[in-house]
Amino acid sequence: MSGDVYAGRGGGFIGRGWGFPLRTGPTGGIALVERDKEIEEAIGLILGTAPGERPMRPEFGCGIHEYVFAPGDGATAGRIAQEVRTSLERWEPRIEVTDVVVAFDAVEEGTLYIDVHYTVRATNDLRNLVFPFYTIPSSEGSAAQSAPEAGRL
Predict the structure, then answer these.
(1) Residues 45, 78: Cα–Cα separation, whole Å
(2) What residue stretches are annotated with the IraD/Gp25-like domain (predicted)?
């Protein structure tokens, strides 16, 4: 048996799964992704799903969607970072989250970037993924526009 975590039909421990958004592949079947791309898509799926959105698994997802109307400040960034870390630790066992940095865009009010640093457990490969998240800025203007802050966890 090979020691390669990618060996075997299903891509080994890392795996193979449906591509998201759902699409057809070159042969007309459901497009599949594997290896690191499968993990990246799984992270995006977790962060992009609000808890309660899936009727058959209502606890699945990440609570960042509760912050769409929250003020753009360091406290909100810290809470978002904690939500991301907790959700990924619960729903994605193939990775170890090493850092989550939430930064507000200095130019585009209401835009923030969630930078997830993680290690793929099977390969000890350090990777990162930036997930854009959009909020609805308050009508008075956001503190993030005048003084961008970042949250780190």
Answers:
(1) 21
(2) 35-124
∠ CA(149), CA(152), CA(153), 5° rounding?
155
Confidence (pLDDT) at 79: 97
Task: For residue 1, tell me if it sits in a domain.
Answer: no
Residue with structure tokens 């960034």? 77
Q: pTM for this structure? A: 0.76
Would 8 be classed as within a structural domain? no
Tokens coding 146: 């005048």
**51: Cα separation from own chain's centroid:** 14
* Distance of alpha carbon 132 from alpha carbon 48, whole angstroms: 10
**Residue 3, domain member (yes or no):** no
Say which residue the tokens 């290690």 belong to: 119
CATH assignment of the domain containing 105: 3.10.450.40
Average pLDDT, the chain: 83
d(CA 76, CA 144): 10
